[in-house]
Amino acid sequence: MRQSNQWMCRNLYDIGHDDAFLAQRQKLEFLCQNTWYVSPAMDDVRNKAESGQPLPEPEVENVRRGEKLPYDPIIDPDRYTHGFYWYTMTVSNLIAQNSWFNDQQLLSQAKLMYRKTLQIYSNKKTDPDFMFGGDAPVAIAALDLYKATNQQKYLDFVNTYISERQNRPFTGIDDAASYLFLLDQVYPLTQNPQYLSYLTNTISLLQNESFNLNTGSFQEISPLLKPYLDIFDVRTNSLIISVLLNHL
């Protein structure tokens, strides 16, 4: 089994620890445990984590200050889906695996992969063509690291990201859905009423501009893509619906 470009173990962990799915926990655990990751960047991360050498921390404070980080020798900075986005998904999934199986080396791998994520984000975040699919997963990964380590620097990064994010329109439905998911995840931790307001406004935007009554699904909101897409993405719709169910 191979994981790519989705929060597989991350979401399986939440499902597997819900009493409603208690009877299925062993199967869900098997799915997560047998997830594996293929890329030169992952090989680099795994080798470093297994070396026994001191490992550098993710430079979240530097990125919060607006610094552009130098790239690691082994990194894919020019592809969104198979570089930046894949790295962010992998960070969150490794953290979930660590939570499930109590293997601290997985957390070390997640931190090293997040360094690569931040390097790309710090250099590409103002490039609308590169970040067309949205950049909220970088903050979701930071939130997962905060939950795993209780280090305030990660939550500070999330707060900074949200304050900057509010000044930008959504590039498309994927961007809106991942940002909505971030707000749904961070609000219970912070109880920040402004975040609840942002969440409610994003739900309203999607209901007004994206929901198709004929199909009962959320469709593309990008003015660049809307004329060409009369389809809905199951993964994106599932993400949106999971948030809506928390706020009925």
Automatic annotation (TrEMBL):
InterPro entries (alphabetical): 6-hairpin_glycosidase_sf, 6hp_glycosidase-like_sf
Domain of life assignment: Bacteria
SUPFAM superfamilies found in the cross-reference section: Six-hairpin glycosidases
GO process terms (BP): carbohydrate metabolic process
Protein name (database record): Glycosyl hydrolase family 88
Species of origin: Candidatus Gottesmanbacteria bacterium GW2011_GWA2_42_18
